[in-house]
């Protein structure tokens, strides 16, 4: 998830506290290998989960994070990845998703452990496949693995499916008269919170604080992307329920962070590119929601992955040849951010 670095994966890496590794894994969901960021993310998840009455999401996130991280150690994968938390970010998302979409049974929790562990080696495999195109799998490892388990659960009575995907067409906003500034702020913050499938505006605020602990460009792009996506879907009269829950914001937030602050050095050209990418993500979100509706599957962070791949594959350069940009990205090298 992290951008290019001068530190090679083969270079010896000092030992890192296991808790720090876990916290960095939480932070890497938004490209931040920073333990303080990860801590605020976990606090946000727990706050939102308890506030919405879905406490199992919080504990599922911890179980998924620990499982995927430990799997990396067991498999003997490059410790550079582990130190930065790159084994954990897909696992924590699996841990949030399973209690959200599946009923709480022993088999659900065992499936969560299996899926979270699976993301660690699937990520490695997908990165190997995507390396020639100078992109990595991002959170698509989580998306693909979770889709498999959610569909499989439909034929397994031991794992009850509680997935609720709204039928189309959905009621649209017919007027802006009923919109208030407070509503817009809540929906804006929920767009950030939904990165971890949490429907709570306080969680979104905690996530922004966490990002501010690591990278000011990232927090600015997260806030801006959520606002832009909210504006676009309101203007285009999108599904009211989805808008109110921030479901058109979270993939746009990840796209904005990736294009605006991680894979390109901030500049007016890269900012414009990221801005267009954020808007495109809204359309990809609507398209993927429609495609998956017959299957009863959530899009998860699929729209972010698809859009960011489409915007990185051209290998555009926006500044001088010496500057870091995506065209120089090497999947074997990562930037280690101290926390």
What does this 3D model show about the protein?
There is one protein chain. The chain is 60% helix and 1% strand. By secondary structure, it is mostly helical. Helix 8 (181-193) packs across helix 9. It is globular and about 45 Å long. The protein starts with 6 loop residues before the first strand and ends in a 5-residue tail after the last strand. 51% of the residues are buried.
Helix content: 55-70%
Strand order of the largest sheet: 1-2
> What structural category characterises the helix and strand content?
mainly alpha
Radius of gyration: 19 Å
Largest sheet data? 2 strands, antiparallel
Low-pLDDT segments: 2-14, 165-176, 331-339
What is the straight-line distance between the termini? 16 Å
Mean pLDDT: 87
DSSP strand count: 2
Following the backbone from N to C, one meets helices and strands in this order, namely EHHHHHHHHHHHHHHE
Shape: globular
**Strand percentage:** under 5%
Brief summary of the model shown:
This protein is 60% helix and 1% strand. The chain has 14 helices and two strands. The longest helix is centred in the middle third of the chain and has 25 residues.
List the helices and strands and how they pair.
Layout: E1 7-8, H1 18-27, H2 35-51, H3 55-75, H4 79-84, H5 89-101, H6 106-130, H7 140-153, H8 181-193, H9 201-212, H10 216-235, H11 240-244, H12 250-262, H13 268-292, H14 302-312, E2 333-334
Antiparallel strand pairs: 1-2
Helix pairs in contact: 1-2, 2-3, 2-9, 3-5, 3-6, 5-6, 5-7, 6-7, 8-9, 8-10, 9-10, 10-12, 10-13, 12-13, 12-14, 13-14
